[in-house]
Amino acid sequence: MAPPGLPSPSPLAPISGSGGVRVKVEGLRRTFPGNVAVLSGLDLDVAPGSFVALLGPSGCGKSTLLRLVAGLDRAEAGHISFTPTLERPQGERAPIAYVFQDAHLLPWRSVLDNAALPLELTGVSKPERQAAARAVLEQVGLGDATDRYPAELSGGMRMRVSLARALVTHPRLLLLDEPFAALDELTRGRLDDQLRALWRKLGMTVLFVTHSISEAAYLAERAVVLSRRPARVVLDRTLELPGERSASLRTEASFAREARLLNEALEQGERW
Amino acid sequence: MNRSALRAAVPPLVALVVLLTLWEGTVRLLEVPRWLVPPPSAIGAAGAQEASSLLGAAVTTGRSALVGFGLSAVLGVLVAVLLASSRMVERALYPYTLFLQTVPIVAIAPLLVLWFGPGPRAVAVSSFIVSLFPVIANTLTGLRSVEPSLRDMFRLYGARRLATLWKLELPAAMPHLFTGLRIASGLAVIGAIVGEFVAGFSEGSAGLGILVLSAYRQLRTDLLFAAVLAASGLGLVLFGVVSLTGARLLRRWHPSAQGT
């Protein structure tokens, strides 16, 4: 087991921040079989390097939006653009990182080989990708667990490997789909801190889908609350909270006010 | 051997001793003729007396079964990969693989003699036909059971078809694949012996199937029993080797192999 409270990013192995991209979503429409309109004309403009939380009722289309942005699904109408472009001269695309609700590690691979997988799939040589994976595992506080297997890790550690795997390509856009929802409160809080610290250091654009109002308020600079489907924007708000955040923030009046506003918007969105 | 393994071995051993004692006692008490049901002691004696021919026959049969099993393992996985490559291919071909499951091997064994000539080759093919289906069916289930999110992740990083097969689908299918191989290992021996009944006559050493037939013709029921025991022993050995290999490969990651 890793000692509790360990996950503070190590200064030993810095990852070069590659900066974020601007994500512009215009008139996005996606209908599922059975004529279920999940998105019908959604617009969203995310500034480069910002941390945006997406909130909304279950099944409202948050995950669909994320999948569309990642290119894992196709929209019937609308447009998603990235500035600067993610297209590379060779015709391939700079990777967008995606963290799923479960860690989704390959159980037959060690922690190191799991974290190195994205680089392996894009054809990076073994010594190079292993060095990069080691550095990023160091960052999430798993520098001493590289040889272990997923079955030997706690849920929180697995999620950190998943985060390391997402960061190993130095993504300029990080998409997270309720990544810590299955974890206990304490572990979740720690991972929230860690994610925020990594974001401040690396400066990528983050789109974070969550059910939790307090998690959204704690992590994000800006919160977008969606209605039930087809998803429309109920509230789009830049949170009036300090850049430097710690657990004590959760008890302050400014935090409570933001949380209340988000809560009201969520309830309003349920009725739409 | 540790204590729990020892404790696990005691009940079946006790059951065996009780069963053999009952068998021996009943046959002697009722004076059942030896050619009908020999007592265990006679089977043991016949086995010891004919040990070298039993061993030779087991090696012959084992060789054919190994060839059949090996072919099943390789071709079964290849066919499963082919079937998994598209729903169209699966829909078109999978029903026909079911023939393998239902084909009465005794009935087509004469065909095998016609095509491959009597001898080990026809026997190995018989073993192969009988053991192929479980490998295909289980591997296919395994290849199909990959979590969609993992596929998404591979797509996200632009993985090519072959990389997805090699780094995601095949490893994920391993537990199912080994289930198929374990079933196939037992069937391979059965298929070899059935094959020998029909196609096993050739110059050179005879297999266990031939030994069973000749013991039957001479009414040497004790030897027949000994040969049957040798045949199931052979199946157990093959099964054990496959199980251990699977457990070793899956040890660090799959729940089915934890604690082995």
Terminal Cα span of chain A: 47 Å
For the largest beta sheet of chain A, what order do the strands appear in spatially? 5-6-7-3-8-9
Mean pLDDT of chain B: 90
- Kindly estimate the percentage of residues of chain A that lie in beta strands according to DSSP: 15-25%
Characterize the structure shown.
The complex is a heterodimer of chains A (272) and B (260). In chain A, 33% of the residues lie in helices and 22% in strands. Chain A is built from 7 helices and 9 strands; from the N terminus they run βββαββαααβαβαββα. Chain A starts with 21 loop residues before the first strand and ends with a helix. Chain B is globular and about 75 Å long. The mean pLDDT of chain B is 90. By secondary structure, chain B is mainly α. In chain B, α5 packs across α8. Chain B has a single domain (51-257), classed as Orthogonal Bundle (MetI-like fold), CATH 1.10.3720.10. The two termini of chain B are 13 Å apart. The interface between A and B is medium-sized, with 25 and 21 residues.
